[in-house]
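Let's practice the habit of predicting before peeking. Look at the sequence and jot down your guess about where helices and strands might fall. Then scroll down.
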Amino acid sequence: MLFKQQVWLRQKLLVLGSLAVGSLLYLVARVGSLDRLQPICPIEGRFGARGQAEFPLRALQFKRGLLHEFRKGNSSKEQVYLHDLVQQLPKAIIIGVRKGGTRALLEMLNLHPAVVKASQEIHFFDNDENYAKGIEWYRKKMPFSYPQQITIEKSPAYFITEEVPERIYKMNSSIKLLIIVREPTTRAISDYTQVLEGKERKNKTYYKFEKLAIDPNTCEVNTKYKAVRTSIYTKHLERWLKYFPIEQFHIVDGDRLITEPLPELQLVEKFLNLPPRISQYNLYFNATRGFYCLRFNIIFNKCLAGSKGRIHPEVDPSVITKLRKFFHPFNQKFYQITGRTLNWP
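Done guessing? Here is the structure:
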């Protein structure tokens, strides 16, 4: 009898111990590792004067938890109201470029406590049907956030769609615009690879990249091929500059974001007038994936989806050389317009 009581007591102690450890881990996750940073997060510049846009980082971490609960439907409207959460239009948009690293950039910026991201591509400005639903429909697609925070969305098709610059200008003529680019030939091959994977998933055949990128009649670069056309960055940027000054754009080096993400993110923080909050602690290299992953706190880590970093098919070196020669003058003009020279061949 005594032996059974001892066993029962030992089991109870194990259960209580597990609950205690679980509760401790939960609290650590809620508070987050950002307590190691400065206790106040000011947002400066046009997004609010210093002093008016300050709130504790602990509150920000609690906000992340509350927003998570709200998205799951576990938080009442009263709770949202009490914590001053609102759905606001974006103050910055990642407008492109497709296969340039837009998803990686958005997820990395979300490490900053003053940034709130729209999880899905809204496709408001490039989709006539969505645009006809009006600006309030767009606003309601945004995540809940504090008024002092910056909401950011990304839709890569914005960069190449003719109607988008004017539509965004009508919403907010002073909005900040982020463009993440990769070496044009690499980006075109990555674009092709994504389409190819989609075709193979449906058991459909598809042309080789060389046949699409080079016109068989002229043996010159096929500018009618969308993957090539998208990589002529300067042509698309010139259309945007009819509505926005170059100072409202920031160019992110997508190739460098893969290998050295922190310096690129620090440049974006400066462009958005955000205090520096993202550190090397938040980024760790995953040798298995071959990419940097994100560390929000000691509990919560996140890597990008497995579809990122697809292996590119082998492409005829002569075609790569021809494409790089074709893109070269456009790249030089892009450097001149943006004031940023990138290490492209």
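How did you do? The chain has a mean pLDDT of 83.
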